[in-house]
Structure prediction request, 329 residues.
Amino acid sequence: MPFLIVRRDITTMDCDAIVNAANTSLLGGGGVDGAIHRAAGPELLAECRTLHGCPTGQAKITGAYRLPCRYVIHTPGPRWRGGGHGEEALLRSSYRTSLELARDNGCQSVAFPLISSGIYGYPRAQALQVAVETIRAFLEEHEMLVYLVIFDPGSFVLEGETYEGLVRRLREERTDTAAKSGLFSAAGRAEKSVCEEAAVCADAAPASLERLVEQLDESFSQMLLRKIDEKHMTDAACYKRANIDRKLFSKIRSDVHYRPSKPTAVAFAVALELSPEETEELLRKAGFALSRSSRFDIIVDYFIRRGEYDIYAINEALFAFDQALLGSL
Ligand code: AR6
Prediction:
């Protein structure tokens, strides 16, 4: 099931469990821990007292009291001490044991804060990388909806060459006067071919309108299933890589005329590692094109043209620029 990054206060999440970046006493503190205890009410602290603490990298579960979720999973992440004291392994362990505890308690959805990245001082970009990698590895094996909840804008820092290139690209798009003229050449071609189709239709209308309507081209759903076959992929591998919920995939599979949202259509193009031209074709079947006038489109196009099909990396970049994420519930 999907992994989504959202900008929210975690105490407002109404999923099955939220995770608390606690300390080993489990008796409350500042940051997200303080916010969770304040929102849950004093009963949460009373239950926490019965747990007698928790080692760093482990997790314990309680009720959620006045919070909208069902459970709170408390995990003390590591305090950053320069990186040479097993911090990364402990942080991974905090995510993994919390996810396992959620699964063992029948949770289907769970929300994490960026553990250790506040008061405990773990560098944020590295904390994010650990969170994404650990959650993603778990979702390879399990069906669960996982949210990573980012609270303050400053806590979402992307680093690295890909990201720097993307920032450059977005800046160029802004200053490039040619950009004002509209679409990418590829998208332009897409538009042209739509116009050509329209012209053909216009020539033929009105007598053969019915026949034209009957001669529908391959649909989005048909092209998607064909590509899955051609790539020798299983359905499950495809919807997981697309960050798409299994139920939505079944709906698309069984409805030949299914019209996905743009983020869903793009998610499948990424999962199937389609070339820029194939991506255009698939999007066109859903009634979309990639333009130069939207940040979402530019970011997606940037990754696809570089042959970088990691949906999680693309979503991090989309999130950083406040765009809709790829995939769907
Ligand atoms: N919702 C979502 N995220 C939040 C919220 C919120 N309401 N409030 C803060 N964050 P921190 P740590 C983010 O300091 O670094 C406590 O005293 C915040 O921006 O809460 O693991 C404990 O008792 C940051 O990105 O936790 C421990 O002693 C992230 O949550 C110690 O702090 C984690 O920041 C744990 O430190």
Notes: The chain has two domains: 3-157, 162-320. Residues 181-205 have pLDDT under 50 and may be disordered. The domain at 3-157 is CATH 3.40.220.10 (Leucine Aminopeptidase, subunit E; domain 1). The radius of gyration is 23 Å.
